[in-house]
Amino acid sequence: MKPLFEVCAHDRQIYAEQLRDWLPPRLIDSHVHVWLERLQAQSGDRMARTVTWPALVARDNSVEDLIATYELLFPGKEVGALTFSLVRPGDDFTTLNAYTADCSRRHPRFPSLLFTTPAWSGEELAQRIVAGGFVGAKVYLNHSPAYLPEKEIRIFDFLPPHQLDVLDRHGWIVMLHIPRSGRLKDPVNLHQMLELEQRWPQVRVIVAHVGRAYCDGDVGEAFRVLAPTRRMLWDFSANTNANVFRQLIDAVGPRRILFGSDLPITRMRMRRIERDGHYVNLVPPGRYGDVSGDPNMGEVSREEGERLTFFLYEELLAFKQAAAGAGLTKADIAAVFHDNAAELLARRS
Q: Across the chain, where does the E strand assignment appear?
């Protein structure tokens, strides 16, 4: 049977020489999308409030594809995952969440979060989480009220207090992709992140992508402002900035950091650069179609394109660099890549 995607000789060399022995034998990937394209609406108002380039990598990510991906990218490792769907405006929440829940029942190493809308009452949210066997909620800015311009969306517009009350009561997990063009340094984001920790202390908040701090300038004074936090967790999915990772390690320590991949998008072959304060994914020419109109995408020469490896490997190499600079131990690496998530998932309400 043809593999899901090609793993080249230079990919295998990177894994064998730089990643295999550095990574622990067991991993838990804390940030994975699992969905089927056939379950999504084929039309409707998509309200383009986010970047569109991730859709170039994969049309969907079945649980079978996820398992195959781990076998290809992490040979010799045992990998579990915290999964959730990909629900766009116009899609049916019930159908897509039901698929993820079914995957978790069939594969206990892949517990899942309920993809939510702020329109649900607290009671409906709780009923859906319990009925599906979910361990918490995945919230996303795309499902904020339609009248809000993308740049004005706040965390509590898509993670409303009435839902937080319920999540706090049960001690459930929340996977939070913060909004706003200022990313992690945005003062509104920082104020509401502090409020989250103070008002709802039992909610287990995971801040995705290191708060979308993909470039050096995205951090600002964030870690100084967030210094009072003690429970907030951070995943570094779909991020390749070693400088940001080092600041994260120095600020919160290795026991509040989680490995996440954001699969399937990190199957992309690329390297990331910073241009005029924004990230740009450089990819092989023609591999992902015409990317000339996307400010977050660019192409390299054909020769360089043949040497590019997976986005996920680039992420891991960047974290390895930051971890070495911070003096993390083998036990610290095991905590980041497995133990922290295992402890989080073991504390189910």
A: 26-33, 78-84, 114-115, 136-139, 173-176, 204-207, 233-235, 257-258, 271-275, 278-283, 297-299
Using alpha carbons, list the distances in angstroms from residue 213 to 199, 259, 332.
25, 16, 22
- Asked whether the beta carbons of 296 and 51 are under 8 A apart, the reply is yes
Q: What is the pTM of this model?
A: 0.97
CATH number of 27-268+312-346: 3.20.20.140
Alpha helices in 133-215 (DSSP H): 155-158, 161-170, 187-199, 209-212
Per DSSP, 181 falls in state T
- All structural domains of the chain with their residue ranges: 27-268+312-346, 269-309
CB proximity list for 288: less than 8 A, separation 6 or greater? 53, 56, 57, 268, 297
Give the integer Cα–Cα distance in Å for 316 and 11. Answer: 13
Q: What is the pLDDT of residues 254-266, one digit of tens each?
A: 999 999 999 999 9
Q: Cis check for the bond before 264: say yes or no (omega within 30 of 0).
A: yes
Q: How many CB atoms lie within 10 A of CB 213?
A: 27
Helix (H, G, I), strand (E, B) or coil at 215: coil
Residue type, position 50, single letter: T
How far is the C-alpha of 162 from the C-alpha of 122, rounded, in Å?
6
| Residue count (the chain) | 349
Q: Which two tokens stand for residue 207?
A: 């801040």
Instruction: Give the residue ranges of the chain where pLDDT is below 50.
Output: 349
